From TrEMBL:
<dbReference type="InterPro" id="IPR051199">
    <property type="entry name" value="LPS_LOS_Heptosyltrfase"/>
</dbReference>
<keyword id="KW-0328">Glycosyltransferase</keyword>
<dbReference type="Pfam" id="PF01075">
    <property type="entry name" value="Glyco_transf_9"/>
</dbReference>
<keyword id="KW-0808">Transferase</keyword>
<protein>
    <submittedName>
        <fullName>Glycosyltransferase family 9 protein</fullName>
        <ecNumber>2.4.-.-</ecNumber>
    </submittedName>
</protein>
<dbReference type="InterPro" id="IPR002201">
    <property type="entry name" value="Glyco_trans_9"/>
</dbReference>
<dbReference type="GO" id="GO:0016757">
    <property type="term" value="F:glycosyltransferase activity"/>
</dbReference>
Amino acid sequence: MGIQRFIDLWKHRYNKYILQQYVPAWRFVQSYLLVRRIKLNNPKQQMIGVLLAEHFGDIVAAEPLSRIIKQKHPESKVFWIVRKPFRELIDSNPNIDYTIEETNLYQSILTSKHHNFDVFYNLHMPELRFHIPTLTFLTNPYAEQLGIHVKNYFEFGNLLEVFAKVGGLPLSQETPKVYISESDRQKIDQQALPQKFVAIHCHSNFSPKDWQTFHWENLIQRLYELGYHVVEVGLKSSLNQSLPGYINCCGKFSLLQTAEIIRRAQFFMGVDSGPAHLANAVGTYGLLLFGKFVHFDKYLPYSGGYATNNAIMITDGQKPCADLPFEVVWNAVEKHIQNTSKS
């Protein structure tokens, strides 16, 4: 065996066994002991576990369930298992007592099978998260009994309704909340954003849900002609950075700081992705670009304001969002601006 093959073999074994199995198994043991210690110190209180580790739009959408759980179990300690990039949403939530950080999926698979909570709410859908090294899915037997899975979940309602159903919790149609700290507000104060701006988000984690880049650039130019600056939020931008009136805030702020930017906007425009859920949570009016998504010709992810009167869904029949004509979108934008200028 050559030296390079030997090195590659041990790198593979290190990743497969140490990083992907032994480390998350140890993290599971640590969380198990944490729950046990807190239970010993609080013998009259229930230990409640909640598993919804990703993605951040899902976590925002499910926030009303944290309030429902605390109401249902008033004498309790609530633990929420979440991935590191999204834990600020959980750390800031006053209805959650402890955040357990998911090292990788294997940790959550072990937790779902061997936890020591008095009550455990698994909000993940089956067939969605797959741990390649062990060839194991994160399962949810209750969801399987209901017949809810990744190919049909929007047939059972919006995301909040689906999470409630797969977790065995009471249904809710409340608007989600995010809990923005004063330090996050001050951080955005320091950015000196324009008084009159539109927040946009152009990229989801699934490209067929995205609108064409040249359409966004045309939109920014049209809005600037009407006196609006445009602030883009999200992880990264593919837009022309020299567009007049355009401000790129992508990848520069935390989730809650991004929520504060969106809160200050005159309105929000975006595709179906996490920032749209933040916009719903902070109450900013939404113009949302929708289309056919995988198995769903028509679907509504949102509860609360974005499900009723605080947003419009811009669609064009059963076309994917990527195929939305510019004029269909611009007509909706013009109509909204005209209506708000009259009021």
